[in-house]
DNA sequence: CTAGGGTTAG
């Protein structure tokens, strides 16, 4: 809409047409997210005022490309910079590293970094952050190691990024080593770093250690309080999360929208419907936080899970904004639990309308149909999925033993002791079947015989990891399994029974939360998923998972050599030992 | 130029 004219008119009102004015003008547009105006101003500045940009100008423009996810334009601009010899300034290259990293071109980011004569700490951090944000834990650790090996003193941003990068793996040993680094590098009293650390511990299954780290923070702020509250919620301790909320308010720290998201989710998973309703009312009335889309999702989830499907639906109808996929997804999930096909269909239709590229939406609807024996409809959805090339992917489970992390895929036979693992699994399953295990196979999407279904379910990666854990760990240690998918209903029942029959504590982290199994019950109060194992889209970016998808018999072990408070993870790819 | 906490369908 006449961008150049607007930009010029606006600029005419500024008295000093020097570089500083131009830069503040351009960075203003950049911050507001208007890439078009940003470029118009740049054009006018160069062509009409014959002004040469400096690094501030260029960084603002690159940021605008990044924020607008304009990869093509960004690459052209990169070419323009090369042509004009503008890449001498480290800040400009750092901005480009950030742009490529955020827009998914990690190789380009890496190449730019390597071409730098003198990378500064921000260059390193940018490279680290883009890998950490993609969940590339091993790469993030390698970058962190390089920083330490080069004798560079990491700063707050480095520490935060490496801690975030490791959360995806949820490896306790890694958290402990990084904890050591934090002390060694002088961040023992840094609230931002400690907040990330407690979050990492919580996500590695060590809620108690997370609690200790939180206890060591002087005057925790809103974010730190929210992090510990979220940790309790994630571990299924709804009542405790509510207590934390009370303590937070008592200590004079104001909750914000993120705090309420976790609080409502805690109420939902603890089945505390009336408390959740109260907090939903209070958040705007008492704390001045207006409910956003996420809070409506949480409320729909809370009401829906507890069986109040009509209330949940009523809330959706009353929402002041157009419900998004999250809200409909929460309703659909509730419909699955309570077998409400009509409402579930409406939710699924809305999901299709809003996003027909997400394979989860197909699975959910297909699942609703197959759960009620409507195989024709279920198979229609499945073929639609196939038609649209929405492929299913592989699930895996990680388990620590010694200094190694073992990864099991669905039906994995690559472990050298695979025979023993399968034998142990069979023995355990037989034992718990005798104890009355009811197999849950309704989430198998294929219309096959019951015993085939049981066979498919028996090979789930978490069951293999569990059998491995039973074989190699001592009886007094909990078995901790990290999964890339939600745990399925059958595995969930198996874990519960094994915990009571074998008298073991089993901890399973799925992408959303923890399940603590002990004495035949689970901390999630059975609000678990009952879905087949599909990899969510974001996992497709994982390099080491990709390797496995290509060669099914590759065993990946991440080996950590702990060496003077620095970690050197090495990915070993041992071919299957036949 | 990097920069803490993130739930809800899987």
From TrEMBL:
Gene3D superfamilies reported for this sequence: Tetratricopeptide repeat domain (1.25.40.10)
UniProt superkingdom: Eukaryota
UniProt GO molecular function: RNA binding; zinc ion binding
UniProt cross-references to Pfam families, sorted A to Z: DYW_deaminase (PF14432), E_motif (PF20431), Eplus_motif (PF20430), PPR (PF01535), PPR_2 (PF13041)
PPR repeat spans: 120-154, 221-255
InterPro entries: DYW_dom, E2_motif, E_motif, PPR_At4g14850-like_plant, PPR_rpt, TPR-like_helical_dom_sf
Every DYW domain range: 437-527
Keyword Repeat: yes
One GO-annotated biological process of the protein: RNA modification
UniProt keywords, alphabetically: Repeat
Entry's family note: Belongs to the PPR family. PCMP-H subfamily.
The protein's name in its UniProt record: DYW domain-containing protein
Organism per entry: Carnegiea gigantea
């Amino acid at each position: 809409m006449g961008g150049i004219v607007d930009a010029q008119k606006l600029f005419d009102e500024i008295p000093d047409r020097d570089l500083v004015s131009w830069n503040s003008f351009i960075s203003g547009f950049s911050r507001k997210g208007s890439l078009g105006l940003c470029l118009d101003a740049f054009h006018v500045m160069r062509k009409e005022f014959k002004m040469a940009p400096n690094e501030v100008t260029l960084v603002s423009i690159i940021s605008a490309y990044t924020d607008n996810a304009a990869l093509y334009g960004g690459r052209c601009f990169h070419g323009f910079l090369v042509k004009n010899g503008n890449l001498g300034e480290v800040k400009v290259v750092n901005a480009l590293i950030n742009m490529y990293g955020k827009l998914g071109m990690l190789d380009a980011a890496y190449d730019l970094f390597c071409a730098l004569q003198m990378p500064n700490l921000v260059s390193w951090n940018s490279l680290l952050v883009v890998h950490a944000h993609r969940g590339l834990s091993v790469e993030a650790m390698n970058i962190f190691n390089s920083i330490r090996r080069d004798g560079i003193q990491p700063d707050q941003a480095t520490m935060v990024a490496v801690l975030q990068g490791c959360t995806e793996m949820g490896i306790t040993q890694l958290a402990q080593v990084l904890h050591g680094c934090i002390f060694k590098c002088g961040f023992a009293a840094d609230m931002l770093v400690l907040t990330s650390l407690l979050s990492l511990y919580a996500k590695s299954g060590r809620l108690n250690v997370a609690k200790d780290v939180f206890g060591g923070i002087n005057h925790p702020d809103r974010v730190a309080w929210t992090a510990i509250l979220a940790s309790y919620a994630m571990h299924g301790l709804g009542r405790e999360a509510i207590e934390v909320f009370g303590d937070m308010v008592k200590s004079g720290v104001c909750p914000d929208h993120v705090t309420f998201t976790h609080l409502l989710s805690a109420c939902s998973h603890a089945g505390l419907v009336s408390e959740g309703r109260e907090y939903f009312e209070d958040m705007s009335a008492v704390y001045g936080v207006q409910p956003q889309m996420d809070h409506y999702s949480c409320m729909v989830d809370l009401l829906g899970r507890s069986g109040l499907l009509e209330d949940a639906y009523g809330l959706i109808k009353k929402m002041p904004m157009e419900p998004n996929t999250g809200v409909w997804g929460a309703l659909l999930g509730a419909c699955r639990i309570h077998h409400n096909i009509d409402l579930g269909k409406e939710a699924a239709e809305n999901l299709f309308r809003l996003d027909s590229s997400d394979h989860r939406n197909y699975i959910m609807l297909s699942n609703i149909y197959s759960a009620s024996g409507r195989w024709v409809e279920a198979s229609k959805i499945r073929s639609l999925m196939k038609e649209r090339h929405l492929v299913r992917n592989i699930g895996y489970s990680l388990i620590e033993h010694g200094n190694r992390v073992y990864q099991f895929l669905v039906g994995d036979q690559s472990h050298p002791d695979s025979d023993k693992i399968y034998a142990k699994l069979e023995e355990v399953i037989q034992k718990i079947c005798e104890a009355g295990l009811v197999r849950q196979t309704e989430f198998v999407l294929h219309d096959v015989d019951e015993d085939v279904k049981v066979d498919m379910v028996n090979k789930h990666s978490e069951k293999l990891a569990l059998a491995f854990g039973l074989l190699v760990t001592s009886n007094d240690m909990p078995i901790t399994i990290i999964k890339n998918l939600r745990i399925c209903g059958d595995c969930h029942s198996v874990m519960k029974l094994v915990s009571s029959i074998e008298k073991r504590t089993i901890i399973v982290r799925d992408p959303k939360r923890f399940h603590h199994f002990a004495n035949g019950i689970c901390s999630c109060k059975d609000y678990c998923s009952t879905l087949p194992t599909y990899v969510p889209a974001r996992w497709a970016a994982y390099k080491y998972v990709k390797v496995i998808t290509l060669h099914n018999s590759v065993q990946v072990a991440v080996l950590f050599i702990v060496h003077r408070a620095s970690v050197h993870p090495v990915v070993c790819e041992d071919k299957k030992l036949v």
